[in-house]
Structure formats: C-alpha cells, structure tokens
Amino acid sequence: MMQNFPNSEMIESCSVGVNVVLSDNWIAKTIKKMLVEGIETWAPRLIIKRAVVDFPSPNIAKELHVGHLRTCIIGDAIARLLEFSNVEVLRRNHVGDWGTQFGMLLELIFEENPNWDVEGQLALNDLAALYKKANARFKEDSDFKERAQKSVVRLQGGEVKYVKAWEKIREISRGAFNELFSRLGVQSEEMGESFYGKYIPEVLEALSDQVKDDDGTRVIFSEHLLGKGGKPLCLIVVKSDGGYSYDTTDLAALWYRVNQEKADWIIYVTDVGQKGHFQMVFEAAERAGWLPGNDPCCPKAFHVGFGLVQAEDGKRLRTRDSEVPRLVDLLDEAKNCSKGKILELIKEKKSSDQLSEDS
After folding, report:
1. PROSITE patterns, alphabetically (predicted)?
2. CA 251 to CA 258: how far, in whole Å?
3. Could you count the other beta carbons within 10 Å of the beta carbon of residue 211?
4. How far is CA 234 from CA 147, 221, 237, 350, in A?
5. Tens-digit pLDDT profile for residues 186-227
6. Strands 19-22 and 217-226
C-alpha cells in the first residue's frame, strides 16, 4: 500500500480501507511554522488564479427551507478554502428568476387582482402560498397553463407589465434571502438566470451545430446519458412556445464564466439530483470548445453534489407541492435551544460567573 503513495514526510502509515495516519512530526512542524511565520504560510499554492463558486442559488418567490442549508454551508466552505489559497473567488448566487414559475405566479396575481401592486403588501411567505396555488392550477387547468406559458414568453420578451411585477417579486425575495444569509455569515453576489438573458442568442449561435429539432422543441442531445427506452437525454434550449429554460440559462452562464469572467475553475454546489443535468451542460460545453474535456488544462467545471434532504415519506422536499421546514424556523429553534441550555447552566452555576441571563 505505502509504495503506491508518493514519498512524503506527511504520511506515517496507511492500510487497506484506506486509513491514512498523519505523521506526528509533520503535524508538530506544521503547527510550529504557522505559529512562528503565520497561518498564511500553510496555504497550498494552486495553479488557478480565479474561480467561480455557484451557490446557494435558490428560486425567487419561494422560501428557503432546511435543504438549502447544505448548499449555503458547503459553498461558503469551498469559497473560503480557495480564498485562503490566494485564489480570486467570484461567489455567484445564480437565483432562479426567469422560468416557468414566474409565468404561473404572475398570471395568478393578475387574474386575482388586475391592479396588483406588490410593494408594501406581500411578504415572501405570501408569495410562496400564491406559488403553490398557481402550481396546482397549472397542473389542473389547461387554459391557465397555456396563459402561464405565454406569460413567461412575455416576461422574457421584456413586456413592461410583466417585467415591473417581476422586479417587485425579486425585491421581496432578495430582502428575505439576504437576512438569512447574513445570519449564516454567507456572502454571495446575486447574478440570477435573468442576468444571462442578453447573451442567449450568441450562445445558441455558438451551439447551433448541436441544436436539433424534437417535435418543435430545440434540444441538445447527450452522447452519453440515456433515458427510458434508450433514448438519449437532452437539454431543452428553446421550448415549443419560444421560451427559454434553465438549461438555456445554465449554458449561457457557463459561457459567460469562461469567456467573460475568465474563470479557471467553475464550481456548482447543488444536490446530487442535478448531477445528470450538469453532466449534459459540461458535455455540450466541451463539444463547443469552451471546456477542454479530458485535457488537464483549464478552464474546468465541477459539480459538487450532496445528498438530498428528504421528507418523512422519503421523497425530495419540494416547496411547490408540500409544507417543508422553513430555514428561518430551523435557525430560530436552534438559537432558542442554545439559549435555553445556557440559561440552565447559569442557574446550575456550572457556567462562567461572567454569564448572566441578559448576556
């Protein structure tokens, strides 16, 4: 086993499993160096200069739930590690603010209140409730579904009425999100799906040799991933009604990060359920020449996946279909539990004399 590892003072021994025991001498020497010369001397020297870390990237008009905690913490940890290693990190919050959910939501709002004015009237939890109602209508009412799909095209086409309402919805969501991110100590610059809309025509032109017609829908087929019946899976880049999907904006975002932001690494932090999606995005980008594929040179794109947070029935948590634990409630409960334990210690006189109920 040891002969398969490069020679290093760092490793004391290893065994099948793989269990690696760090050398006590190396640990002591490293700690001494950090104490004497500063912790920055321990930072690894990476060959990359600039990285994009895509997180936490929630959907607008929905509340953050317990499942979003992982992408917040994992994404922030990756960003901090890279920053510690002297890499310029572009923290990108790729919020979902341009898709079908807005067609449903806007159409329901305009239907129930034609003179609707969001500002000062709705909070994020109100929008979340409206979204659930709109999603149910979308599934059950074919006329509403058709109108919602047309609303997306109108929004993406810049129709003033839809853009104005969409902007106010984003303001409400942004305020609630930023308050939670502040509590978690997580920083990320919002550059949502809509930001890349103006680049989509150029990106689709660059991908034109890959785009195929599939019953009126414009798609990019995967060369490696197969679905039911052995048919290749695909990215939908232009829907049959002329609208764009999150597949389209993810391709545009990757193009922008490689060609405009000049990132050496692009890292996406999401649950493992999106693994196949990003495999197809990276595959299309490699065929277009944006990414080098198996070549070790940069730029490189990575998907960092984590396990799904599931409901009691074993299904994935979905805000649009059911009640899920809100992240704000989880943080409040954790804070209250911690405070309760501290107060218990104070009363039992097991804590520092400097602590009091007020502190």
Report:
1. AA_TRNA_LIGASE_I
2. 11
3. 17
4. 26, 4, 9, 61
5. 999 999 999 999 999 999 999 999 999 999 999 999 999 999
6. unpaired
> Model-level pTM?
0.81
d(CA 286, CA 301): 10
Instruction: For the chain, report the end-to-end CA distance as a whole number of angstroms.
Output: 54
The number of angstroms, rounded, from the C-alpha of 358 to the middle of its chain's C-alpha atoms is 38
Question: Nearest 5 degrees, angle CA 325-CA 326-CA 330?
Answer: 85
Which runs of E-coded beta strand occur in the chain?
Answer: 11-15, 19-22, 50-54, 88-93, 189-190, 211-214, 217-226, 232-238, 265-271, 300-306
Of 337, 330, 336, 338, the C-alpha closest to 180 is 330
Asked whether 316 and 90 are in contact (CB, 8 A), the reply is no
Contact 222, 236 (CB under 8 A): no
Q: Which of 28-42, 90-104, 221-235 is predicted least confidently?
A: 28-42
DSSP H or E run through 194: none
* Cβ(189)–Cβ(90) below 8 Å: yes
CB-CB contact of 238 with 248 (8 Å): yes
Spatial distance between the Cα atoms of 261 and 244, rounded to a whole number of angstroms: 23
